[in-house]
Automatic annotation (TrEMBL):
Domain CRA: 154-249
Cellular component terms per the entry's GO annotation: cytoplasm; GID complex; nucleus
Recorded superkingdom: Eukaryota
Gene Ontology terms: biological process: proteasome-mediated ubiquitin-dependent protein catabolic process
Record GO terms (molecular function): ubiquitin-protein transferase activity
Protein name: CTLH/CRA C-terminal to lish motif domain-domain-containing protein
SMART domains cross-referenced by the UniProt entry: CRA (SM00757)
Pfam families attached to this UniProt entry: CTLH
Length: 272
């Protein structure tokens, strides 16, 4: 996707180049970033193949240097300089299993179970995840266990029983939200004209809760919700046209930029 975007951006022009390859000395960090990106995207088989190839490449390099002990170390996928720990990989397997159930089967129960197993850590972050999941489960039951196919008597009863059983644990923090959910029962079947329509007919509800789950899951692993490799590549692609223009001007004027650790133009300011 990124290659296609860059090709469209520069079309017949070559991509900007530099005489200084600042990343050549950090190959192990780049490999680790790529491996982590693949794992975060759920590409587990691709990540495994990539890690194997990197291990073989490192082993061959050490063999040429005559370092027999390093060959054994390089052949292992548990080289922590480049490869995420096995526990992290297993965590991402868990995350994608839960996301698959949520997105493909409208099954919120694994996500709810995970949020309860990690309740203390999530509450310490001030997270709303567990309530968001249970609220969507209530709405899903309200529609008869289907994706917004219209409320049914059986669905309303199931939602009511679910609310009575589960929502007391969210009081008083979510009192207003719980009152809205339970009060919506009085507006059936004319829910679309009620003050609660935005809760029960939200087309982005499932994608929103999936994003919230991903963000909270990654945060408990000490990771950002978005892949750092994706963010860095995107920021670089955005900056390329400006830097390419500068490079063209400098070449025409036969000048060079010599200041280190500073861009020659003001581009983006990032704040923590």
């Amino acid at each position: 996707m990124l290659t296609t975007s860059l090709s469209q951006l520069f079309k017949d022009r070559p991509l900007p180049s530099t005489e200084h390859d600042v990343l050549s000395s950090q190959e192990h960090l780049i490999n680790r970033a790529i491996a982590m990106h693949l794992l975060r995207e759920g590409q587990f088989s691709v990540a495994s193949e990539f890690l194997n190839e990197m291990a073989q490449k490192k082993a061959m390099k050490k063999q040429q240097e005559g370092d027999i002990e390093a060959i054994d170390n390089a052949a292992s996928l548990l080289d922590l300089d480049e490869v995420p720990p096995g526990e992290v990989r297993q965590q991402f397997h868990t995350m994608y299993h839960i996301l698959h159930e949520l997105k493909e089967n409208n099954n919120l129960l694994p996500a709810i179970q995970w949020s309860r197993e990690n309740k203390e850590a999530l509450e310490a972050r001030g997270s709303n995840l567990e309530f968001e999941l249970c609220r969507l489960q209530f709405v899903w039951l309200f529609y008869g266990g289907q994706h917004q196919q219209g409320p049914s008597p059986g669905g309303r009863q199931a939602a009511l029983e679910y609310g009575r059983r589960e929502f007391h644990t969210f009081l008083p923090r979510y009192l207003r939200e719980v009152q809205q959910l339970m009060g919506a029962m009085a507006f059936c079947p004319n829910l679309r004209d009620s003050p609660y329509n935005h809760i029960f007919n939200n087309p982005s509800a499932w994608s929103d809760v999936a994003h919230s789950f991903t963000r909270e899951f990654c945060s408990l692993l000490g990771l950002s919700a978005d892949s750092p490799l994706y963010v860095a590549a995107t920021a670089g692609a955005i900056a390329l046209p400006t830097l390419l223009k500068l490079q063209t001007i400098m070449k025409a004027k036969r000048t060079e930029w010599t200041t280190e650790n500073e861009l020659p133009v003001s581009y983006l300011d990032w704040h923590a």
